[in-house]
Amino acid sequence: MDADLKKLIDDPRFLKYHAETVRGKRFNPFDVLRYSDYEIRHSNVLAWLLQPNESHGIGDAFIREFTTALADEAGRQGIRLGRVPTSFEAEHVRVERERYYVDITIFFEKERMVFAIENKTGEALLEHKRQVEQYEETIREKDGGVYDVIQSVLLTTSPTPDVPDGSFIHMSWTRIRDIVRSLRQRESFDFDEGERVRAFLGHYLEIVESFAVQPEVNRDYFTTLLDDHRPILNRLSEEREERADGVVGYLPDDLGGYTETVDRLVSDFRQQPQQLRSAVETFLRGRGFQTRRNTPPGGRWFFLYFWNASMEEARKSLNLPWQPRWVIAFHRREVLLQLQLDPSKEEAAGPVVDRITRFMKENPIDAFSERRNRYPMDVPWTGCLMVYKHPLMTDEVLSTTPVAEIQAVTLRRMSAFLERDFRRIETYLKCLAFDPAPSA
Question: How far apart are CA 251 and CA 422, in angstroms?
């Protein structure tokens, strides 16, 4: 076997990549139900675990460890938490969802203390910090006379700071993962449904681990794997375009189990999502669009937002404080086009939003049934209304198109999208804005 190829397969980072590739084919009920990425579902599980008398059967084990973790983070971040709850009996603990739009609120009645938790299954953004501080102000105004201590918490996948980042406690999902893992390993689950709960937590841990890894670790592992083995990956990429069977035949029989993973890695290596984003951005600016980029830590996704003057006119006519948002997500395995209506939690329940979403569901943008799946009109974990969702480039197309042609194919598809679906949606929004008055 080629020495460079053997070095690649022996690399621990390749073995980690292999484990992730294989894990993607394992059964997980959260994936089957498409709940794995829904922020609201993660808040539901946390609220369930935090309530001592819930059906998980572990009593106050989770809330005790969670409170201890919060106290540790508060001390490390220089936040004065005050007295830490010591009573976790069910009659003294109350957990609520979406009270004053807060994801999870924990009331410790005996200690007259409240934790208000805003849950984000992504990195911490400035808007999240403002949102958390706003929610804390609301709770203080409404419940300040009942509770002595009101503390807000921001839960994200970002690393937690060593100095105060505001008046809130910043907590990482890696800490939640560690608590759940520890409880699952050591708790006896000594009752009839115990093994079912243990199995549920096992599946849930797989989902949490898929997004809770700190971005720096993710970036270092994947990017350096590609960089350090660039010569062999370059060679395999060139030969892959000439051979219909990919890397089959390059590995001896005893390493045949890695064939699919090597082929997958070569496919990922040959894609250049960041460069493709630049080409599409230049194309859109040439068509008169304004653009904005966003690249979350980790280097796996590259986002491009775009808009034009007519979208701003539609926003004003509809009396919306937020603008419809077109976003293209570039990944090594997909280029995804989306249109989102992205109000805040408070506005999402307002009459204007309710009327617009009801009208759009009752009056489809596209009457052709074969294209209807492009308009999900759904609210995913991000909390926005997903109006349009369509893969501009699929994994299959990216994997089989010669590298030199990928950019041209993407731009042709982008041009076709602007002439068809974009124009149709643009006209629809203008018509929707023509008479913004609510129906009688």
Answer: 46
Residues 19-56 have pLDDT tens digits of 777 666 667 787 777 665 667 888 999 999 999 989 88
Token readout for 182 is 């520890």
pLDDT attached to residue 433? 66
DSSP β-ladder status, 93-99 and 102-108: antiparallel
Whether 160 and 172 have beta carbons less than 8 Å apart is answered as yes
- Rounded to two decimals, the pTM is 0.56
DSSP state of 378: B
CA nearest to 428, candidates 335, 341, 364:
364
Long-range residue pairs from 359-364, CB within 8 A, at least 24 positions apart, any chain: 359/432, 360/387, 360/432
319: number of Cβ within 10 Å: 10
CA–CA dist 206, 367 (Å, integer):
40
149/387 Cα distance (integer angstroms): 41
pLDDT at 176: 93
Over the stretch 347-378, which tens digit does the pLDDT of each residue have?
Answer: 544 555 566 667 777 777 877 766 778 887 76
Tell me the HSE value of 369 on the side-chain side, using a 13 A CA sphere.
0
Question: Quick one: which of 329, 422, 331 has its CA closest to 374?
Answer: 422
How many H helices and E strands in the chain?
18, 10
SS3 257: helix
Q: How far is CA 218 from the centre of its chain?
A: 15
The residues that bridge with 341 in the sheet, in sequence order, are 385
Q: What φ, ψ does residue 430 adopt, rounded to 5°?
A: -65, -40
Q: Are 275 and 302 in contact (CB under 8 A)?
A: no
Encoding tokens for residue 180?
């759940």
